[in-house]
Automatic annotation (TrEMBL):
Residues 99-318 form the Glutamine amidotransferase type-2 domain. Keywords: Glutamine amidotransferase, Glycosyltransferase, Iron, Iron-sulfur, Metal-binding, Purine biosynthesis, Transferase. In the C-terminal section; belongs to the purine/pyrimidine phosphoribosyltransferase family. This is amidophosphoribosyltransferase. One of its GO terms (molecular function) is iron-sulfur cluster binding. The gene is TorPRPP. It catalyses: 5-phospho-beta-D-ribosylamine + L-glutamate + diphosphate = 5-phospho-alpha-D-ribose 1-diphosphate + L-glutamine + H2O. It comes from Trema orientale (Charcoal tree). Pfam families: GATase_7 (PF13537), Pribosyltran (PF00156).
């Protein structure tokens, strides 16, 4: 046990007992030190049957340099980027997940595996990507603006050797601060260097930052994640693990984070477990952390379990240490992961996302039935719920709307004339499916209502006789403070209008939402372990500060956004710091 542990830390370190892991979940090549499962209803055994083997070598497939996507000499000042964002967001007004993270320990192709895993997590953020890899005690970082395939290519991955790496994809608003806020962040402190990738949002960010600035800290970015690095750097605790714990104990809100040092990978999930984080293992014993299991699938890692709310997992040459270092309030996992954010092939919070969405559709068919000839989906996020609705209603599911996957930033300059085409650029109606039909169209959510009205008009213009909108979530009435970019409450149509008023606004013949009570009933005994704040307005962690938009609120942070800087950062640790840091750690490893 660490000799120099404060009372708050030591109390939480005192009595660990094993998680109730099944044999198949028990790590083979490491010595797990485990602790009590913080809550009982989300059993990891449900999905422990997933199994894969490592069969093929990994070949990085990125071939396209980022410069190909940005015309030479073209500048994208804030306003231009914002124009792109506004343009596409107008027609795709869903809440935005604000990040995906991955961490890999013990594989000689760690950065390439990170690259592939980030591909699998691309839906969680498309604005920037980065990887930090460790080789010979040096942390090397490459970050950039754009999709994973735009940021990385073969030669960049060649610059990230080592068997330890973390990666990050981010969604953010646009502007000059884009590059600086792309993670992972790397910082040097007295005992070495540390990299961090964060998914979530800290509700006490401003207060923490103000306090740190009062004490002389200088911030380089406008991201709340940088606060974590400062807190680690100034912590008096040793070893490094306890610095992380000390820092996390000061954070409020949502954080699923992976850290990397010269020889350790650390995964942390906030005590409420707002955002997901899972652990898996490759057949060669490499340990993988990722936001979703779809990333594990892609890199042929076997899902083992979630990182539990309030848990800190440390992976190094001695194995895995699992510590429950923070108090355990009732978990509040984000239900929107199951409604919209996560991929349907992922298992999130111990539940299949596909099965959840299908059940949402079935509930809608049972509780809000309507005579119809065909069931269609707003692709892609409404598809699984529409399948559930169609099966339950006994009506054919057909592809009445086709999504274009090829509309992106590089498509065309957004002029007002083009903007007016709106949703048609992304969704095309299939007249053969819709003409003369009574159509049920299933979508995952309604935010401002503008997209829904355009979709209804599109379907009617294609000849539909009736359009019945079914929404596979309850009405959204509150903004999210835990890592999801939603509009302010005033902009949310369900906060301003009744269901009938919304129906009138969007022009459908009928409209029904997934009843809140039915959603909770579906989740059964796990229901209290989920956050529903955007449907109920009841926030499990009170948002004491005004909403922090991770990037967009901080317009002028001094970076001019030139194309030259898009290539990202390169940070090297001071290797002389390593011995001191190692010694510090070795002396006080927490034994359980
Ligand atoms: S407020 Fe909504 S989107 Fe945010 S964490 Fe809670 S359920 Fe998820």
């Amino acid at each position: 046990m660490a000799a120099k542990v404060s009372s708050s830390l030591s109390s939480s370190l005192s009595k660990p007992t094993p998680f109730p892991l099944t044999p198949s979940q028990t790590p083979l090549s490491f010595s797990p030190k485990t602790l009590p499962k913080p809550f009982s209803s989300s059993s990891p055994t449900k999905t422990a049957s997933l199994s894969y083997t490592h069969k093929t070598p990994f070949i990085a497939s990125a071939k396209t340099p980022i410069s190909d996507f940005f015309p030479e000499n073209k500048q994208y000042p804030d306003g231009d980027f914002d124009g792109y964002d506004d343009y596409f967001r107008d027609d795709d007004e869903k809440p935005r997940e604000e990040c995906g993270v991955v961490g890999i320990y013990g594989d000689p192709e760690a950065s390439r595996l990170c690259y592939l895993a980030l591909h699998a997590l691309q839906h969680r953020g498309q604005e920037g990507a980065g990887i930090v890899a460790v080789k010979n005690d040096v942390l090397q970082s490459i970050t950039g603006v754009g999709l994973v395939s735009e940021v990385f290519n073969q030669s960049k991955l060649d610059q990230l050797p080592g068997d330890l790496a973390i990666g990050h994809v981010r969604y953010s608003t646009a502007g000059s601060s884009m590059l600086k806020n792309v993670q992972p962040f790397v910082a040097g402190y007295r005992f070495g260097s540390v990299g961090v990738a964060h998914n979530g949002n800290l509700v006490n960010y401003r207060a923490l930052r103000a306090k740190l600035e009062d004490n002389g800290s200088i911030f380089n970015t406008s991201s709340d994640t940088e606060v974590v690095l400062h807190l680690i750097a100034i912590s008096k605790h040793r070893p490094f693990l306890l610095r992380i714990v000390d820092a996390c104990e000061q954070l409020e809100g949502a954080y699923s984070m992976v850290f990397v040092t010269n020889d350790k990978l650390v995964a942390v999930r906030d005590p409420h477990g707002f955002r997901p984080l899972v652990m898996g293992r490759r057949s060669n014993g490499a340990v993988v952390f990722a936001s979703e299991t779809c990333a594990l699938d892609l890199i042929e890692a076997t899902y083992e379990r979630e990182v539990f709310p309030g848990e800190v997992l440390v992976v190094d040459k001695d194995g895995i240490q699992s510590l429950c270092l923070m108090s355990h309030p009732q978990p509040k996992q984000c239900i929107f992961e199951h409604i919209y954010f996560a991929l349907p092939n992922s298992v999130v919070f111990g539940r299949s996302v596909y099965e959840s969405r299908r059940a949402f559709g079935e509930i809608l068919a049972t509780e809000a039935p309507v005579d119809c000839d065909v069931v269609i989906a707003v692709p892609d996020s409404g598809v699984v719920a529409a399948l559930g609705y169609a099966a339950k209603a006994g009506v054919a599911f057909q592809q009445g709307l086709i999504r274009s996957h090829y509309v992106g930033r590089t498509f065309i300059e957004p002029s007002q004339k083009i903007r007016d085409f709106g949703v048609k650029l992304k969704l095309s109606p299939v007249r053969a499916v819709l003409e003369g039909k009574r159509v049920v169209v299933v979508d995952d959510s309604i935010v401002r209502g503008t997209t829904s009205s355009k979709i209804v008009r599109l379907i009617k213009e294609a000849g539909a006789k009736e359009v019945h909108m079914r929404i596979a979530s309850p009405p959204i009435i509150g903004s999210c403070y835990y890592g999801v970019d939603t509009p302010s409450s005033e902009e949310l149509i369900s906060n301003r209008m009744s269901v009938e008023e919304i129906r009138e606004f969007i022009g459908s013949d009928s409209l029904a939402f997934l009843p809140f009570d039915s959603l909770k009933k579906l989740l059964g005994t796990e229901s209290p372990n989920f956050c529903y704040a955007c449907f109920s307005g009841k926030y499990p962690v009170e948002p004491r500060e005004i909403k922090v938009k991770r990037v967009g609120d901080f317009v002028d942070d001094g970076l001019n956004g030139s194309l030259e800087s898009i290539d990202g950062g390169w940070v090297q640790a001071n290797t002389n710091q390593k011995k001191e840091k190692d010694k510090e750690y070795e002396e006080s490893v927490v034994k359980i």
